[in-house]
Write a structure and sequence with these properties.
Strand order of the largest sheet: 2-3-1-4-5
Strand content: 5-15%
CATH topology: Rossmann fold
Number of domains: 1
Shape: globular
Helix content: 40-55%
Number of helices: 9
Structural class: alpha/beta
Largest sheet: 5 strands, parallel
CATH superfamily: Tandem AAA-ATPase domain
Amino acid sequence: MNFYRILLFRGKTFQLIAFLHTIFKHSDITRSRTCLILCPVNVISNWAAEFAHWLSGLRPTIKVYQFSLFKTKSARWERLEKWNDKGGVMLMGYEIYRRLSNDTDYNFFLSDPGPDIIVCDEGHVLKNAKAGISKALNKIRTKRRIILSGTPLQNNLKEYYYMVHFVKPHLCEFN
């Protein structure tokens, strides 16, 4: 009964963590070991706390990296390399992703080929094709893409289109 109660009171964060745990647990089938979660900087520590809370004691363990904790280029490079080699979840803010996506040194880790799964929390920030973050994310080659948004789209079909376009590029054309 407690499990069902938890599902009733937990939303998109819990569901995503459960999904990722399942995907990583069966990585021999899913071929997925790395996930990049892009989110506003002010919620990165909340994501890390939720992973720690819900996955405590479960196997396999999922290493969670908070990119914002690493300030130097060498420390960032080391962390991305470790994440890429060993797997896990990288939590990163949208703005730092946008800046690093233009740096060819980070291209392999972040966009070509990039992580196995990319998640955009508060995905309604992708509401404009001309925005820097939208341009950066459109370069990513990752095929497994998830958008989380708790914000209504205000009946704006263009905003909805850009989110769908990120998840499934070229599904439809918008003029």
